[in-house]
Each structure stands twice: as structure tokens, then as C-alpha cells.
Design brief:
CATH class of the largest domain: Alpha Beta
Shape: elongated
Number of domains: 3
Largest sheet: 5 strands, parallel
CATH superfamily of the largest domain: Response regulator
CATH architecture of the largest domain: 3-Layer(aba) Sandwich
Strand content: 5-15%
Order of helices and strands: HHEHEHEHEHEHHHHHHH
Number of helices: 13
Number of strands: 5
């Protein structure tokens, strides 16, 4: 009988082509409905077989959450002590726990040894990076396997970085800072008035596809003031929790706020054209109340929309 961890790997292989199909515009309406059902069933199966462990720690502070997987007690305690000065560190001792906690917590970054019990660290990385729900989580692999071939295999699994043991803590610390700083820059670019996703260097292409798909969906619904989060998630074929986690990581905004920002960015563009009145622009970007639109616009950009006319 196939074990749950092998099943997780198989599901990740099924999910990848489903996610590719979501972006094909030539799918018929029936094809899109069947795809949504298949995606939902796959997600339900993933949730069903994901191993569960007792929760000893969860997010408890405003610090970035760092999920650490290391089976060597001394190394785990050393890294936990050093990293806890800046991050909320949650540590696990095998790969199955790592996979479970990564899905449960949506950490800001993962650091894992490769040769972990139960499930290898690079295999966990491959599973997470091949799923649209978790592909955005930065992943650093640690390993005593120093050969070039092993480094390449680790990076091909989707790791953001690969650090060979032994290493100086300062090197690991710098790599973490660089990854998180790069994410901040991508967030700013994603919220700009005209984000150019082609120029945004995401490590995982699933993240770029998700953001591009999300923006396209919102733009198609710009004039619909009743466009809801449930509809948004349904069109993305993802659960509310998955959409929230991914949107929050990629843009630092909740889905509702991201939709509002896209609407307001478009309104700024329309106002600058000097073709439409404030009421017309408000209506075109899905605000049923022009007064509320003006208040939201000023809060977002620091100026009244009338200043652009």
C-alpha cells in the first residue's frame, strides 16, 4: 500500500498540470467547470492525507516566522538560539512534520537539512514548490552534501538557496535577509500603478502566474461593485485560506485590500486621462458611492481625485 508521503508527492505531480490548465484561455466553460472540480477534489485529498501532529507552537508575535527542520539536536538548538533573536523560530525534527507545519503555518521562510528522517528536506521542498498554495514560501536547504551535482539537485527542487555544511552563521543570516528583502521589493512592485510582472523576478513561476491571474480576474470585474471574495477565490480555484496566505505573502495585502488597490490604481489612470468625471470613474472601477470612492482614493494616494482633473 502506498504511504501518505508518497501520495503527497503524487498529488503534487497531479496539481502542476491542473494549475497550468487554469491559465489556458481556450478552455470551454464546461472545461473550466470540470477543471475547478478537479482542482478542488485534489486540494481536498491533499488536506485529507496530510499527516497531523500535536501543535506545540503557532504564530505568537509580529516577527517573521521561520520554520526550521533539523534532526541533529545540537545543530537545531544552536540555530534556534541564534535565529530567535530576530525571528519566531518553530522547529521540527523530521520531514513529515516539516511538510505539515509548512502547510499549516504558511511561514515566512523555511530552513531545512536535506537528510531528514521520514521525508527528505529536498523532497518537501519539491512538494511545496510545485503547489500553488505553498510555492511562495522561501526555502533554504542545508546539507553536508557538497558535490556540485547535489547542489544542482537541491536548486532544481525549487530551493531559493543551498548552503553546504559546515557554514558560518553570518552567511546563513545574510542569505535569509537577502531573500526577505527581495520579497519586500517584489511586494512594492506588485502594488504599483502599472505592475510589469514580466520584469518581476520571482523564483517560482507559479507565483507570477498566480499574481497575473489574480490581476486579470480583478480587471475583468472592475465595474462590478458586488464582486466578492468568494467569487474571487472560486475563479482562482483556491480556498479562501490559500488565497489569503498567498496574497498576503506576495503583496502584504489581504485579498479585499488588494482588490481595492487594483481598483484605485485603475481609477487614477482614468482620472489622469481627463476624459471622465469622478462619478463616472467611480462607477467604472466598482465603487457605487462616489463619496466613498473619493475618501478611499485620498487615503490611498494622499490627494483628492479632483486634483487630477
Amino acid at each position: 500500500m502506498i504511504n501518505p508521503h508518497d501520495m503527497l508527492s503524487l498529488i503534487s505531480l497531479i496539481k502542476a498540470p491542473l494549475e497550468e490548465l487554469e491559465n489556458l484561455e481556450e478552455l470551454s466553460d464546461r472545461g473550466k467547470k470540470l477543471l475547478a472540480v478537479a482542482t478542488e477534489n485534489t486540494n481536498n485529498l491533499l488536506a485529507l492525507i496530510t499527516p497531523k501532529y500535536p501543535r506545540t507552537r503557532t504564530r505568537t508575535s509580529d516577527k517573521n516566522v521561520l520554520l526550521l527542520a533539523e534532526d541533529n539536536n545540537d545543530m537545531r538548538e544552536y540555530l534556534t538560539e541564534k535565529l530567535s533573536k530576530e525571528y519566531q523560530v518553530i522547529s521540527v525534527t523530521d520531514g513529515a512534520q516539516l511538510l505539515d507545519m509548512a502547510i499549516e503555518l504558511n511561514p515566512d521562510i523555511i530552513i531545512s537539512d536535506i537528510l531528514m528522517p521520514v521525508l527528505r528536506g529536498d523532497e518537501v521542498c519539491r512538494i511545496l514548490k510545485s503547489s500553488i498554495e505553498t510555492s511562495h514560501i522561501p526555502f533554504i536547504l542545508l546539507s553536508a552534501l557538497r558535490e556540485k551535482e547535489n547542489v544542482i539537485l537541491g536548486l532544481e527542487a525549487g530551493a531559493n538557496d543551498y548552503i553546504t555544511k559546515p557554514f558560518e552563521f553570518g552567511i546563513l543570516d545574510s542569505r535569509i535577509h537577502n531573500i526577505l528583502q527581495n520579497r519586500k521589493q517584489l511586494r512594492k512592485m506588485a502594488l504599483s500603478t502599472k505592475p510589469n510582472l514580466e520584469e518581476m523576478e520571482y523564483v517560482n513561476q507559479l507565483d507570477k502566474k498566480f499574481l497575473n491571474n489574480a490581476i486579470q480576474i480583478i480587471e475583468k470585474e472592475l465595474g462590478n461593485p458586488g464582486f466578492s471574495i468568494n467569487e474571487f477565490c472560486q475563479k482562482l480555484a483556491m480556498s479562501r485560506t490559500s488565497v489569503y496566505n498567498k496574497m498576503k505573502t506576495l503583496t502584504d495585502q489581504a485579498p479585499n485590500d488588494f482588490i481595492r488597490i487594483i481598483r484605485l490604481n485603475k481609477s487614477k489612470e482614468l482620472l489622469k486621462s481627463k476624459i471622465y468625471t469622478i462619478t463616472e470613474v467611480s462607477d467604472r472601477v466598482g465603487f457605487s458611492d462616489p463619496k466613498y470612492f473619493s475618501t478611499s482614493f485620498k487615503k490611498q494616494f494622499g490627494i483628492s481625485p479632483s486634483k487630477l482633473l
